[in-house]
Amino acid sequence: MAWLHAHARFDPDRFTAPVIGIASTLGDHDSGSHRHQRGQLLYTREGCTRITLAQHLCLLPPSRAAWIPPGISHRAVMQRSVDYRSIYLIPQLCQALPQQVCIIEVSPLLRAVLEPMAVAAFDTDWQQGRFVHLLGLCLSEIAEAAQQPMLLPLPQDKRLAPLLKTLTQLPPELQVLEQQTGASSRTIGRIFQRETGMSYQQWRQQWRLMRAMEWLVTGRSLGYCASALGFASDSAFIAFFKGMTGNTPGHWLK
């Protein structure tokens, strides 16, 4: 069966077919850090998934998909209820696909293709019949899909270890980070610019935006998001969100 239950253990590398698909609805699930020999396309139909990589924090909102090339260690955390589809491709099928993790838009065609691929039997012959065409369309759509800025680069400098240990919490103000790390604001700024391409304030704002999106999708209220993310009022949070995305939270959700 291709439908994966919440507590089922699944290892795509133990199968011989070039494509393995699964469909599942999970709630409050943590995959733990893992890797596999196959490339993975993880598509969130409903809900939101947070993916942690060695050098990036990644958000996967509804109607988007994460492409994870073969051999890359990753951890997927799902809050509340997440309905998703996932396909795993042998390395030979991944050669023309992106070589780095990316979040892509899921076109109507890719969405239509993913459903029968995700629920296909594990012993499907992908070299015959309609499955040949489904696979070809899928590979083409992944390769040509527009990428979304949903990856937050993580600094690797050891002086920032206290920050990286608390990624699920609101990053502190710069002066507090100085006290935690013993590094000056100028040093912290140089590290972030060198390793993330952003100032610390820009990085912190991007973190807040990604967490706001995650909470909004999983049903948190506007007031909860504003308070938990350190905004003085709901209106201040709405202004921040619109300034970052061009849309109010309500319009973005729709």
UniProtKB/TrEMBL annotation:
Protein origin, superkingdom: Bacteria
Q: Which InterPro entries match?
A: AraC-bd, Homeodomain-like_sf, HTH_AraC, RmlC_Cupin_sf
- What Pfam families does the entry give? AraC_binding, HTH_18
Q: Keywords of this protein's UniProt record, alphabetized?
A: DNA-binding, Transcription, Transcription regulation
- Ranges where the HTH araC/xylS-type domain occurs: 158-254
The yes or no answer to whether the keyword Oxidoreductase is present is no
Signal peptide feature range: none
Q: Which PANTHER family match?
A: HTH-TYPE TRANSCRIPTIONAL REGULATOR NIMR, TRANSCRIPTIONAL REGULATOR-RELATED
Q: What is this protein called?
A: AraC family transcriptional regulator
